[in-house]
Amino acid sequence: MNRKITAISVQKKNPKRVNIFLDGEFAFGLSRITAAWLKVGQEMSSEKIALLKSEDEIETAYQKSLNYISYQPRTEQEVRRKLESNLYPYEIINNTINKLISLGLIDDQKFANDWVDNRSEFRPRSKRALSYELKRRGIQADYIEAALEDVDDSLMAYKAASKQAHKYKSCDWEKYRKKMLGFLSRRGFIYEICTHVTKRTWDEYVLENKIFENEADI
What we know:
Number of strands: 4
Strand content: 5-15%
Helix content: 55-70%
Order of helices and strands: EEEEHHHHHHHHH
Low-confidence stretches: 211-218
Shape: elongated
Number of domains: 3
Number of helices: 9
Largest sheet: 4 strands, antiparallel
Distance between the termini: 101 Å
Radius of gyration: 28 Å
């Protein structure tokens, strides 16, 4: 039995959605995109109503994903978990993910590359630490391997220590050594690299500064 659309009204709390009234009663809500072709007086079969509801669920999943990735880049797994938390069916989640990938809005290789570049510039850490961070975000192993291909742990440790050395410039050698070794080990670097970089930065940034200060006092 067909039912007739008697009213279409914009939702007060969400102007991107409308309420559909059938035979004088509220029936369901739809995104404005899904409801764009509907008109008052139009008759709807039960099959068409079911199709509209399915299309609306697909559209809302897509729009929710777009909103989620608008704040910052996300991995495929992060978007998938977001949709799962909203209880979307498996098929709709997969279709949404595939659409986002095809449009270039999800790109796990680019995400991994950009993550490593950003860390290298602002918060250097070891390959092991970077790999762990990317795995936690659901990046697959071959993407991680490609992103870390040119990462040099010794160089990364030196960059990290160089940024940190000025904070320890008032320390004596033993205190500096303890603090810097702890700092570098927390960034995931192995002991041999930590000890070498600690001594190098002590000589270059701290010891040299102390000598300069002593000469200035003469």
